[in-house]
Design brief:
mainly alpha, 3-stranded antiparallel sheet, globular, GPCR_Rhodpsn, G protein-coupled receptor activity, GPCR_Rhodpsn_7TM
Length: 388
């Protein structure tokens, strides 16, 4: 499933050496020079941001103790899928310069199959991860007293995500082949489908990686939203703590909903273009849709791989702090907590020495009870506040 494949562009008869359009590939296809430059710059930016951002997300989730929640683990799984898309970008960029030209040998055939299936694999794994995240968040909101997403359930969910992803990419791996161009010495990496198989496969992909997952996500978030914006968390005796918990939960849910919306908007143009190719191929060959559109539209989806980590930093204080700590060598949350404890003790000691507070005035027993109560409250709603 390559958005730039088989568009049927031909070289104009009056093309000269002074033309501003660059000839690329071995079959006379052409891409305007400004599109080559623009797409290359965009690709470099996306690769840098996506590689750094998603790598940091994975590193943070698996090295910071308080970030090892079920939701964050699924976010890290989606970050891995985004890295898979990032690895595929150089191959996608190759089409702008040399079109379908490829190299032979066994390794050329293996890489042809890998790169053609990596895009679908990344897209499928990302949207399936979003479905799992939406279910996890919704269960936490609808059933706050039950821990449904246990470690075993989470491992099973991630395994199913990648098994389903692999199942979707197998037909594409089989169809992607190195083909010797007739009358030339060049090899091409193409999808070679039996009659009607491409139509069936692309329609199935559109349904299973876009329509059905986004419908499920919309439904469960609607149910969770109705519950979240109209209830109180159990066991919250303190009004301030209750408001803080509600605000954190809403902020976390808003972040995940935003991620889904951006994902849907980013991939919609590409999915629409694929459906046009399936059901109205003559529209593409008739140049009704400008050539530039075919090269620009897919990049909305590819950019999504770089956008997700930015959304986490914008919406989540925990991710924002950890990104700052790693990139700017800031203090960890443990260090900040220790400094706060030391400062509190110094303040109490100063006030005691000045006679403004007496040791007997500090209700230690009461404080211990309050601390234990707060810890109990935190455990009850930790699965609601885990990413905020």
């Amino acid at each position: 499933m390559n958005a730039t494949e088989n568009q049927g562009y031909s070289m104009p008869a009056n093309m000269t050496d002074n033309s501003t359009v660059a000839l690329v590939g071995h079959v006379g296809f052409q891409v305007p020079r400004n599109i080559q430059i623009g797409v290359t710059i965009l690709a470099v930016i996306v690769i840098i941001l996506a590689m750094i951002g998603n790598t940091l997300v994975i590193y943070i989730v698996f090295t910071v103790n308080h970030m090892r929640s079920s939701t964050n683990t699924l976010i890290a799984n989606m970050a891995f899928a985004d890295l898979l898309m990032t690895i595929d970008i150089p191959y996608i960029l190759k089409w702008v310069y040399v079109w379908d030209k490829w190299f032979g040998t066994f390794m050329g055939s293996v890489l042809c199959k890998f790169f053609h299936s990596a895009q679908v694999g990344s897209l499928a794994a990302s949207v399936f991860s979003l479905v799992a995240i939406s279910l996890d968040r919704s269960f936490a909101i609808l059933f706050p007293m039950r821990k449904i997403m246990t470690q075993n359930v989470m491992r099973f969910a991630i395994s199913m995500i990648w098994l389903c992803t692999l199942a979707l990419t197998v037909p594409l791996m089989i169809a992607s082949k190195n083909i010797q161009q007739k009358g030339t010495e060049f090899m091409s990496c193409h999808e070679n489908w039996p009659p009607m198989s491409r139509t069936t496969y692309n329609t199935f992909l559109f349904t299973t990686t876009y329509i059905i997952p986004l419908s499920i996500i919309a439904l469960v978030y609607c149910l969770a939203g109705l519950r979240l914006w109209g209830r109180k968390l159990p066991g919250q005796r303190n009004l301030i703590a209750h408001k803080k918990a509600q605000a954190s939960s809403r902020r976390a849910t808003a972040m995940l909903i935003t991620v889904v919306i951006i994902f849907a908007l980013s991939w919609f143009p590409f999915q629409a273009l694929e459906m046009i190719r399936v059901f109205n191929h003559q529209l593409l060959h008739g140049h009704t849709i400008p050539m530039e559109v075919h090269f620009v539209i897919p990049w909305f989806g590819y950019c999504n791989s770089a956008i997700n980590p930015i959304l986490y930093v914008i919406f989540s204080e925990n991710y924002r702090h950890e990104f700052y700590r790693i990139l700017c060598r800031g203090p960890s949350r443990k260090d900040l907590y220790r400094k706060a404890i030391v400062a509190s003790r110094e303040t109490i000691g100063t006030r005691m020495s000045q006679g403004t507070i007496l040791e007997a005035d500090i209700p230690l027993t009461l404080l211990r009870k309050e601390v234990n109560h707060d810890e109990h409250e935190t455990v009850e709603c930790s699965h609601v506040l885990e990413i905020s």
